[in-house]
TrEMBL record:
It comes from Muricoccus roseus. Pfam families: CtaG_Cox11 (PF04442). One of its GO terms (cellular component) is plasma membrane. Exerts its effect at some terminal stage of cytochrome c oxidase synthesis, probably by being involved in the insertion of the copper B into subunit I. PANTHER family: CYTOCHROME C OXIDASE ASSEMBLY PROTEIN COX11, MITOCHONDRIAL-RELATED (PTHR21320:SF3), CYTOCHROME C OXIDASE ASSEMBLY PROTEIN COX11-RELATED (PTHR21320). This is Cytochrome c oxidase assembly protein CtaG. It comes from the Bacteria. Residues 33-202 are periplasmic.
Length: 202
């Protein structure tokens, strides 16, 4: 009897250990994407824009040109463009840019935006303090909107030997029909979370 009890206890321990291992693996699989996003957001890895954090520290003499790009996933029947092609900004200076979206369809259409910067190495120095990313936007038939983006570039960029010679930074937004489409396109891991919706001008 004692031998059977010991065997039963050992089997239970093995079962609990196996269950714990499987549960842990499942948990890690669900956590992998947000953990990777957090890592990218904190380090600027893979061109991920730094979000939130302190306000712009104030302008220094050094300038860069920020270019603005806009793309639309084929699943979304919107027109989407940057309101300006480029602007010069001083490092440490708060910048404000706008994007425009329009729905030419005969029905309401919802879209959601992701973003990134190039060259990727400047991601950790590019801070967005307000944007329209990751917030679903529904446009009625024929409706158009302007969406603001507030940002600044860290003056520390000028001291980094990997970035000090860079004179042009491109901020790109892509609008998708759903976040699932964005995930299939492989852009979520290099996008980071939104930092608050800007006022949408309808």
């Amino acid at each position: 009897m004692d031998r059977q009890d010991a065997l039963a206890r050992r089997n239970r321990r093995v079962g609990f250990a196996a269950f714990g291992t499987v549960a842990g693996m499942v948990g890690l699989s669900f956590a992998a994407v947000p953990l990777y996003d957090m890592f990218c957001r904190m380090t600027g890895y893979n061109g991920t824009v730094q979000t939130g954090g302190p306000a712009a520290p104030g302008a220094v003499e050094r300038q860069v040109t920020v270019r603005f790009a806009a793309t639309t996933h084929p699943s979304l029947p919107w027109r989407f463009e940057a309101a300006q092609n480029a602007m010069p900004v001083h490092l440490g200076e708060q910048g404000l840019a706008f994007y425009r979206a329009a729905n030419p369809a005969a029905v309401p259409v919802e879209g959601v935006a992701t973003y990134n910067v190039t060259p990727e190495v400047v991601g950790k120095y590019f801070h967005k303090t307000a944007c329209f990313c990751f917030d679903a936007q529904t446009l009625q038939p024929g409706q158009s909107v302007e969406m603001p983006v507030s940002f600044w570039v860290d003056p520390a960029m000028a001291q980094d030997p990997n970035t000090r010679d860079i004179r042009t930074i491109t901020l790109n937004y892509t609008f998708f029909r759903t976040l699932a489409d964005a995930e299939k396109a492989g852009v979520l891991a290099s996008a980071g979370p939104h930092v608050g919706r800007g006022s949408v001008t309808r």
